[in-house]
Amino acid sequence: MRELPHDIDADVIFEISRLLDGHSKVSPVSIMWLIDEIRQNFETALSDDALELLAVEMVSTRHLPMKLDRPPKKRRQQPTSKSD
């Protein structure tokens, strides 16, 4: 077991565990769904990246299939070039 971040809330760990306990063993666990559920139910200082890492570790420890469906970070919009 790795050392947890200093700013983690134990309630977040319990909530992820609760959500995984109620999840089907056959269908993949959506990591984006887990992060959204945590954000809706708890205020935490953890970034989405830290929550994703924690969720992936907890899902893989339980040997559940997972769906890595988190959308990519917003890309900076490039200035449009003027075409002649």
Q: In CATH's first tier, which class of the domain at 12-67 applies? A: Mainly Alpha
What is the fold named in CATH at topology level of the domain at 12-67? Arc Repressor Mutant, subunit A
Major beta sheet, strand line-up: 1-2
User: Rough shape?
Assistant: globular
List low-confidence stretches.
75-81
Number of strands: 2
**Into which percentage range does the β-strand content fall?**
under 5%
Instruction: Report, as a whole number of angstroms, the end-to-end distance.
Output: 60 Å
Q: Percentage of helical residues? A: 40-55%
> From the alpha-carbon coordinates, what is the Rg to the nearest angstrom?
16 Å
Averaged pLDDT: 81
Largest beta-sheet details: 2 strands, parallel
Helical segment tally? Answer: 3
Helix-strand sequence: HEHHE
- SSE class: mainly alpha
Per CATH, the architecture of the domain at 12-67 is Orthogonal Bundle
Brief summary:
This protein is mainly alpha-helical and about 80 residues long. The chain is built from three helices and two strands; from the N terminus they run H-E-H-H-E.
Main traits of this protein?
single chain; 84 residues; mainly alpha; two-stranded parallel ribbon; 3 helices; 44% helix; 5% strand
Overview of the molecule:
This protein has 84 residues and is mainly α. It has a domain at 12-67: Orthogonal Bundle (Arc Repressor Mutant, subunit A). 44% of the residues lie in helices and 5% in strands. The chain contains three helices and two strands. A two-stranded parallel ribbon has the order 1-2. Helix 1 (10-21) crosses helix 3 (48-61). The longest helix has 14 residues, at 48-61. The chain is globular, with a radius of gyration of 16 Å. The model is unreliable at 75-81 (pLDDT under 50).
